[in-house]
Amino acid sequence: MSASLKDIARTAQVSEATASLALNGRKGVNEKTRQKVLDTAKELGYVSNGTARSLARRKSGLIGVMVPNISNLFYSNLVRHIERSLRDMGYKMILVTTESNINYEKEMIRHFVSFRVEGAIIYPSIKENEKPEYINLLMQNGIPMVFIGNYYPGIDAPHVMSDLYKGVREAVDYLYITGSRHFYYLGGCKSIVSNQLKLDAIRDYLTERGLEFPDDHYLLLEHTRYENAFIRMDALLSSGKEVDAVIAADAFSALAVYNVFQKHGIKVPDKASIISFDNLLYPDVCVTRLSCIEQDLGSIVNCTMQNLQAMIQDGSKGVSHLSPTKLVLRDTTKQYLAAEKGYAG
Amino acid sequence: MSASLKDIARTAQVSEATASLALNGRKGVNEKTRQKVLDTAKELGYVSNGTARSLARRKSGLIGVMVPNISNLFYSNLVRHIERSLRDMGYKMILVTTESNINYEKEMIRHFVSFRVEGAIIYPSIKENEKPEYINLLMQNGIPMVFIGNYYPGIDAPHVMSDLYKGVREAVDYLYITGSRHFYYLGGCKSIVSNQLKLDAIRDYLTERGLEFPDDHYLLLEHTRYENAFIRMDALLSSGKEVDAVIAADAFSALAVYNVFQKHGIKVPDKASIISFDNLLYPDVCVTRLSCIEQDLGSIVNCTMQNLQAMIQDGSKGVSHLSPTKLVLRDTTKQYLAAEKGYAG
DNA sequence: TTGTAAGCGTTATCAC
DNA sequence: GTGATAACGCTTACAA
Hints:
homodimer, 12 strands, Rossmann fold, 13 helices, DNA-binding, 434 Repressor (Amino-terminal Domain), 6-stranded mixed sheet, 43% helix, 6-stranded parallel sheet, alpha/beta, 345 residues, 15% strand
């Protein structure tokens, strides 16, 4: 069906070996023969068989990238950054998604191993993942991996992510200074490290100020999305609870919160403030211009890549890294002190 | 480094052949030997080498999927649908993006061929693509392909996409009936079929009604996104042009248009209507609840998959299909006649 | 039921 | 510079 090296060799009247050398631009082959080989290759529409090459070279030129899904702007932007780096580095990407399903995640790890990726970048998202040891399959097969955005405790691999604890503390500090006292957090399961870090940051800060952060101020969102957030928040306000600060794990739930405040006649930011994560939606298309904790995808990806490259080349262990976040203040937080603290608008 | 079939064979004291048969669940192998093989495989942490398997079987189990990018909700949703189907069908997906760069697109086609994908699903996005023949590389290598969402004229492959012409006509009809006379279209380059279809639909309808649709009523957006749309629209209104109907190629530019109308004190939908494509953003998080032409991703993907499967199995040619769109009326169009025409809110 | 051996399409190590 | 030839790790006739 498709032309093989053998076909080229036969047509160009050289051995397969020379044909291979010529096609791979190796030195030590007569310029004329090279030209002949290249010409017949083009003529026959030859495309080298990557499968066979991977096998022979014991190198696939592939990097596995695993994210929960790509219909989420955060992940898709992350992937875009990764893809660009990978292109620059001369790798091809194998992108897979897990839908936060542990069986898919396991399957995809095997997929990576099966195709002998040279490295793996993994965004972990399985909650209550008691035994994430299946991840070790990579290392057992000599495949370097780095966690991005999050990590599974107990797995001996470096992680590169935002300094969420610090970022949330900074946000809580700003909210506290501007008068908020009744804090709520809307987000995912705390068995996931990133959520735990955010909760800890809130609780620690408030505790230091002699305030409480009761368990029921943590609204667990199964899918941290609009409807769910709206319903939970609406119920909360209808029950008469006082709430003047909400930190939401994503923009859609934050906007849901805003709409609920509107519905209940609570002025934002006068009576209540909202801070969300990420800064990926055009602020001007939204019902309100959200204040948010922006993550530096570029730096996260850069650091991940450096790690991975070092691990692949030197066989080094790699080193975890926390990337600073940036508090972006817009219309869902009070303006008080904004200038002095140096927060960007 | 990683255990191979040979290792298993040696440890389990059988030949490689039997080990292979056992691992692949083939019949004709003693239950005891099978168990022994399976056990040692698990023990050694064996993962079969997909590269070698592809080579030996002359089948990769891979389907190539190519989209312009994944940071766009339309594409990422499309991919999510595709991925699910592929999983059900037992294929693995190789997802690549082109950033609408013709060199990347060519490179990725070769990538597909190189790894001998069993089929390819391609969302074409290169404008002014004079010579899209490089796409034929797939067919030349016996790889069935189907265009999704759009197509390159002149390439002999089926396409599955929305019936954009009909969808836009329906929208224009609604706008006309509700009083609009000065139509504008904001979107991508008309060298791309999908844009051409939309423009034709508008022009044809208006011509039939004895109205004009001058060339400068088509605002070409390089990247059909917020800022660009805002600037163009703002300039237009500032120049004093009358505009009472805008069809925008995506939600972000539609929302930009809305903001521009607001800025100029033009009431939407009283004085001007806006209809965008896609229905992927929660309407309630936006500055206004957009009316839109919704595409049926599910049906597009289903049809694509059926085509591809038939082409792979029977070697059939595949057949193009246009999937109906749905006009969703919300707050950027007048309510007149909405009920009678049976349009959903 | 099991083993032998010939591929699959490359690359890499040698001689020549 | 070039050409045999042996890997690479698996599948699959065909024998045994």
